[in-house]
Each structure stands twice: as structure tokens, then as C-alpha cells.
Specification:
The chain folds into two domains: about 80 residues; about 110 residues, Tetratricopeptide repeat domain (Serine Threonine Protein Phosphatase 5, Tetratricopeptide repeat, Alpha Horseshoe), CATH 1.25.40. Helix content is about 75%, strand content about 0%. It has ten helices and no strands. It is globular and about 55 Å long.
Length: about 200
Amino acid sequence: MTLLPALWMLEMRTRKRTLKGRFTIAAKHHITIAEIYETELVDIEKAIAHYEQSADYYKGEESNSSANKCLLKVAAYAAQLEQYQKAIEIYEQVGANTMDNPLLKYSAKDYFFKAALCHFIVDELNAKLALEKYEEMFPAFTDSRECKLLKKLLEAHEEQNSEAYTEAVKEFDSISRLDQWLTTMLLRIKKSIQGDGEGDGDLK
């Protein structure tokens, strides 16, 4: 069976599960469909739509952890597509939901970090205000390496110092390896530093 007919059949099954009120199973089907769109068909917009639908169903069943996983996928792709406000709202929402949970609060700093980076790409002042808000909401964020990096990057950006920016990123990366998403966002910010132009496509 080729991919598209198989996808069509899966979507039909998902609709049937939804009509029968079996939302958890429907949510799992939407994740499977989203994964096909992101890996096989490379249609990120459709992948986002299915992850969002899955998150809605999980929320309705009060499976918040599963809903958050889907929403974080949406946020990551939204930022890649330069839909920064959408990404910010999700990262802030998930961060706020996890910061008071003893088992999950360590992850909250990552979500606030990513939200701040999205703010930073749009506007430096927005990033500063967001950083202050996150520190107030989640005091543990202040002592995190992510928060300290953001402050160094903001200072370097304000001074239009490309070398200081790169050095701060290198120092962070030497301890906590940057993934592709973070590298992409940090490069987008770096390119806004005067004199960096299109940049050399490198942070190291």
C-alpha cells in the first residue's frame, strides 16, 4: 500500500474514533499522521495541525503530559516557520504548567529559555521584559545557565558585539551541547547584530 492511501485510511479511522468519543485513541492516530507528514511528506504545516488536534484531545481527557508533548512539537515547528508569537505562547504555557510540578519543574527553564529566544529574534526589548517576567514567575530560572546566557547575549546584542555573542554561545555549548533548533534560533539573533550581515553561518 502506498503512503497516501495508507494515510487516508488512517485519517478515516481517526474520524471514526472521534465520533465514538474515543479521544485518546484518536489523539494517538493524529500523532501518527503528524509524524508521517513531518518525516515522509515533509509538510510541516499539516504536521502542526495534527499535533494541535492531538493536544486538544489529550487536554479533553486530562492527559496533560501527553498534551504538552504535542504542544512542544507545535512550538518548535512554529518557531522554525517564524511564527514566533505562537511558539512563545506555547512555551510560556507549558513552562507555567510545569514549574510547580516537583517532577517537571527542571524542564521549565528550558521552555522559558526557548520563549525568550523567540522574543529576542523579534525584538531585543521584548526579550528583556520577558526575561524579567520569567525570573519573577520562576525564581529558580535566575540561577540557570540558560538565564545567564540570555543576559550575556542581550548585553552583546546591545553593544552590537558579535565576538562577545559568539564567545558566550561557545562557552554554553562546551557544557550543554546545542541542538539544531537552538543553533538555528541563536544564528537568527546573531545575524541581527550590525556588521555581522548574513553572518558566516557559524556560532563557534
